[in-house]
Write a structure and sequence with these properties.
It contains 5 helices and 10 strands; from the N terminus they run βββαβαβαβαβββαβ. By secondary structure, the protein is α+β, with helices and mostly antiparallel strands. The protein has a single domain (4-180), classed as 3-Layer(aba) Sandwich (Glutaredoxin). Strand 2 (19-22) and strand 3 form a beta hairpin. The chain is globular. The two termini are 18 Å apart.
Length: 184
């Protein structure tokens, strides 16, 4: 398991648009339709990565805590399913149901969305404001499998709270660390 950090897309970048299939209900989802009124969290995740498995419960809680505040979450898996069949769409559906994801869990078959976001690892997190301008990219919190630190979502939650309060978000941000995206 190689540790891969985020590429740290430049702050201020406008979120690249996309149209992908939601594996939960087989509907087509665009960024424009799925974005939140006050902000949007884009998460690159997958089924098999131990770093993602470690935070799935917190991802579900975070989405539930912020949806009523106008923050929507969108999860995307861009992994090559030929070489990593455990990340296949039908298993994404099961994973979303098992963890009670209230957000769309989209499959990026061509990997073009991951490339547009310069995503590097799973999990990889991006927060965009109400104008879809990037205000945060980095880690959920300091917890990693086996390091003994609790999963709290502290870094991401702090960012979302500052965004909702119209307060400045520090440009000093820690990259996420996880498994590399499995490129074709």
């Amino acid at each position: 398991m190689a540790l891969t950090p985020s590429n740290m897309l430049p702050l201020g970048t406008i979120a690249p648009n996309f149209e992908l299939v939601n594996t939960v209900d087989n509907t087509s989802v665009t960024l424009e339709r799925a974005k939140g009124l006050n902000g949007t969290v884009i998460m690159f995740i997958c089924n098999h990565c131990p770093f993602v498995k470690h935070v799935n419960e917190e991802l579900s809680k975070l989405a539930k805590d912020y949806i009523s505040k106008g923050i929507n979450c969108i999860a995307i898996s861009s992994n090559d399913i030929d070489n990593y069949p455990e990340d296949a769409p039908h298993l994404m559906t099961q994973n979303a149901i098992e963890h009670d994801f209230i957000f769309p869990y989209l499959y990026d078959q061509t990997q073009q969305v991951a490339k547009a976001y310069d995503a590097a690892c799973t999990p990889d997190f991006y927060v965009f404001n109400n104008n879809l301008k990037l205000v945060y990219r980095g880690q959920l919190d300091d917890s990693r499998p086996g390091n003994g630190k609790p999963v709290t979502g502290k870094d991401l939650r702090n960012t979302l709270d500052l965004l909702l309060e119209n307060r400045p978000i520090s440009e000093v941000q820690k990259p996420s660390i996880g498994c590399n995206i499995k490129w074709k």
